[in-house]
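From the methods appendix. Each design record in this collection lists the tokenized structure first, followed by the designed amino acid sequence. Records were kept in a plain field format so they could be parsed without special tools. The example shown here is representative of the layout used throughout.

RECORD:
FOLD TOKENS (138 positions):
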């Protein structure tokens, strides 16, 4: 997609502003805010709140995108597959986590996952298309 002239100009201005900010010392920034009569604590809180909102919106968008991809990929997966034996299932899940570093799972209260938990994780990874049961022939 081609960027408009205006988009390029705004991008250039942003880059220059960030470069200027990076070259400005903390003390110089504090002095500028003091001279403008602004409360640094209020500015810091406002900035923190805005950044938190932006990060949260980004995470929500990323989650929505991941859900859409998962839903689309699960539509193409067979509804009924046979799980491998538990020991083999554990190996397959471990291999999937090693192969796909962006995929992770959390332990509840630091406890070990039960066989039932691992079976559910296996099913989820199959639905997501990360594990393909036909590749294992189990």
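DESIGN:
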């Amino acid at each position: 997609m081609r960027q408009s002239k205006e988009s390029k100009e705004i991008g250039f201005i942003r880059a220059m502003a960030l470069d200027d900010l990076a070259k400005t010392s903390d003390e110089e920034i504090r002095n500028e805010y003091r001279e403008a009569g602004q409360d640094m604590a209020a500015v810091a809180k406002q900035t923190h709140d805005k950044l938190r909102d932006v990060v949260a919106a980004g995470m929500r968008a990323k989650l929505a995108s991941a859900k859409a991809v998962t839903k689309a990929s699960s539509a193409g997966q067979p509804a009924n597959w046979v799980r491998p034996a538990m020991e083999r299932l554990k190996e397959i899940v471990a291999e999937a986590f090693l192969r796909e570093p962006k995929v992770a799972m959390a332990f509840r209260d630091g406890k070990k996952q039960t066989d039932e938990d691992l079976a559910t994780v296996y099913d989820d990874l199959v639905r997501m298309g990360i594990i393909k049961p036909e590749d294992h022939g189990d």
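APPENDIX NOTE: The first helix runs from residue 5 to 23.
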